[in-house]
Write a structure and sequence with these properties.
This protein is an alpha/beta fold and 473 residues long. The protein has 17 helices and 18 strands. Belongs to the aldehyde dehydrogenase family.
Length: 473
Amino acid sequence: MVEEIKQKCNGLELQNEDVYMATTFGDFIQMVVKKSRGEDEEELVIDYATLHVNNMTVKMPYQCFINGQFVDADNGKTYNTINPTDGSVISKVSYCSVADVDKAVAAAKDAFENGEWGKMNARDRGRILYRLADLMEEHQEELATIESLDSGAVYTLALKTHIGMSVQTFRYFAGWCDKIQGSTIPINQARPNRNLTFTKKEPLGVCAIVIPWNYPLMMLAWKSAACLAAGNTLVLKPAQVTPLSALKFAELAVKAGLPKGVINILPGSGGLVGQRLSEHPDIRKLGFTGSTPIGKQIMKSCAVSNLKKVSLELGGKSPLIIFNDCDLDKAVRMGMGAVYFNKGENCIAAGRLFVEESIHDEFLKRVVDEIKKMKIGDPLDRSTDHGPQNHKAHLDKLLEYCEIGVKEGATLVYGAKQVPRPGYFMEPTVFTDVEDHMYLAKEESFGPIMVISKFKDGEIDGVLQRANSTNMD
Ligand code: NAP
């Protein structure tokens, strides 16, 4: 009958989900009539901030995204998001309030309990997520440009890593939608064993996601894709300083066919929006990536409010140990990549390098030679190696980190200064002679600062113990 209707209605496009979602004949007829009138899709109205940059026109939604619509914040407040390359304003952005959180959670709850998302066949859900990944790929240049403007990521890296890995993440999890299975478990050890129990995995409901600013879209992808694939709905707060790629993502999600209310994006402050999310009684789980102190606070609020589930990906201080029998060119290349990748704003950065004494001086010399070759500049320029730090407060924190290093007696070999040009650029920096008790040895910088400690030739046990003795509390 479906094929007959398609033929009689002049090639009217009907999808499997249109048929499955119309569970009675009356619903089906209504849907066919609406589709043939072109009334089936609600029009999405977007007030863009538009820029002509990087040889393209970039169109950026800047309002909160609640229940499938871009709307002003409840109290009408906005703030400016800043381009770290020159300190200019990219766009105003809605500054969400607690009332916006409550609206977004109500929309996500309704979408979960009464909307299409919850009823949809898992394979159809997967198809929508594949479509979303395809749309992100189609818009990858625009997304990478937004990421460069808003976070200072070097464009070539943004294209491959920030956006490329986000696309791949959605594609990967789209494939999971119809493969989320439980187990069949024997419950009796006696023979013959004919007693079985089974588990069936169900989505939790409304999930909250709070993310940092270093890889804005990738952090969104890592947390949201699995959450959506499992059939949950979500309310996401991007970092206040990098909201634009998340809002563009919301636009693409509508185009991909995600039903209204399934994704809600709330730009605003952690203390207000993030805190309300961790306390909200209708949220069943919160996923957070960010600093250890805020992670602790969130875990506490999640417990005290409604014992919601919580997952935390927090700070780190990973060691990299370089022994004297290494290929030194390779060690220099890898050491520099581990510290300076994405201007050091990298949660898997090498927070501390241990270098065996007999190669220490040569290693240091080669690192400094390589730093001098790095091109610092506009992240949209394809030959740039090192862009600006993400925002001013972060640059200030990094300069202060270096001052503490100098005061405590570490040897400053290179950098530790702001680059004399507009924007928030910092010279790639190297410290050595860092002793275990020093601030630099214990605290994560989250910036382009190489922290080197020597170890005596052959002292393998000693260096392993030192490398493992960080306590991120
Ligand atoms: P942060 O200050 O903890 O902020 C992270 C997010 O939490 C932001 O969206 C922030 O909002 C929000 N927030 C702040 N206070 C909150 C509260 N009371 N309740 C709920 N949310 C709140 O961290 P950051 O400075 O953005 O990021 C740097 C840290 O993240 C580093 O320690 C780094 O290691 C870690 N990180 C870890 C990973 C990982 O995978 N393990 C990845 C990336 C980063 P605002 O935007 O208003 O500040």
